[in-house]
Structure formats: structure tokens, C-alpha cells
Amino acid sequence: MSDIRIRAASKTDLPSWTAIYNHYVKHTAVTFDVEPYGVERRAAWFDQFTETGRYRLLVAEEKSIVVGYAGTTRFRPKAAYETTVETTVYCAPGSEGRGIGMRLYSALFEAISKRRYSSHPGGIRPAESCFSSTS
Fold first, then answer.
1. What CATH number has the domain bearing residue 47?
2. Could you give the CA distance from residue 95 to residue 58 in angstroms, rounded to a whole number?
3. CA 71, 121, 9: angle at the middle one, nearest 5?
4. CA-CA distance, 119 to 6, in Å (whole number)?
5. Residue 100 sits in which domain range?
6. Among the residues of the chain, which ranges form H helices?
7. Total domains in the fold of the chain
8. Which end of the chain has the least Cβ crowding within 10 Å, N or C?
9. Contact assessment for residue 99 and residue 88, using Cβ atoms and an 8 Å cutoff
10. pTM of the prediction?
């Protein structure tokens, strides 16, 4: 598993994480979306993330291929939820069961640990495939 690198996502990753997300749109109900996203629409979604702020997006890559991503986003648009972030993680098809989701979440929580949050409601997608580990 040491060949997995976790880093901040960039716009150059956009086609990769859009494809990962769209796999779950097409083949599962976990996204609650019914139509796949185009890269342009996901680009607008990506604009909410920063490398140092409250809303982060990290990717896991193996041999320069994105195999998963995790992020924090705004939970609700009400003032009382300002210190709450929603979390999510997705793993690429074929990379399940390797602990990539756990590594992504660990890195994500470490990245936001110096900020004050009241909670991180999880959007674990799909939990059983991202977090089961054979090691």
C-alpha cells in the first residue's frame, strides 16, 4: 500500500474523479443522483475547495492514476451549521478492499484537524468497498 500517494486534488484530476463519481451514479444508489455529471459541471463543484481552508478535496493516486478521493463540503446553508462539514469518500472501481478510503479519510481529517468543527457527518460511499482492508 506504500505506493499510494495522497495529495490535494487539482483541476487536472477532474476527468478522473468525475469518472469515479459517475460509476457510482450509474451503478448504485449511494449518490442520490440519477444522471452522470459532465466534466464542466464537476469543475464548478471543484471551485469550492482550497488547499488550506475548511473545504478540502484530496485524491489517492497509484502510479499516477487517481484511485479515489475524499473531501469536506458545506453541510447546510444555515448559520448554526457553519462549523459543521460533510465528508465523503469514493474509491475507483477495481481499487476496493485495499484500505484506500481509510487512508484518504485519515489524511483528510489530519488536514482539517487544526480547524474547529462541531462534527463531520459522513457520506461514506461505498463504505464496505473503500474501508475493508486485506492488510
1. 3.40.630.30
2. 16
3. 0
4. 23
5. 4-131
6. 14-27, 39-46, 100-112, 127-131
7. 1
8. C
9. no
10. 0.82
Measure the N-to-C terminal CA separation of the chain; round to a whole number of Å. Answer: 9
- Copy the grid coordinates of residue 10: 487539482
Contact assessment for residue 117 and residue 82, using Cβ atoms and an 8 Å cutoff: no
Helix, strand, coil percentages, rounded to 5, for the chain: 35, 25, 40
Q: Which of 104, 120, 30, 113 is nearest to 67 (CA)?
A: 104
Give how far the C-alpha of residue 24 lies from the chain's centroid of Cα atoms, to the nearest Å: 13
Residues 106-117: pLDDT tens digits?
999 898 887 655
d(CA 27, CA 15): 18
DSSP 82: T
Cβ contact 92:124 at 8 Å:
no
CA distance linking residue 71 with residue 54, whole number of Å: 10
* Distance, CA of 10 to CA of 119 (rounded, Å): 26
pLDDT at 102 over 80: yes
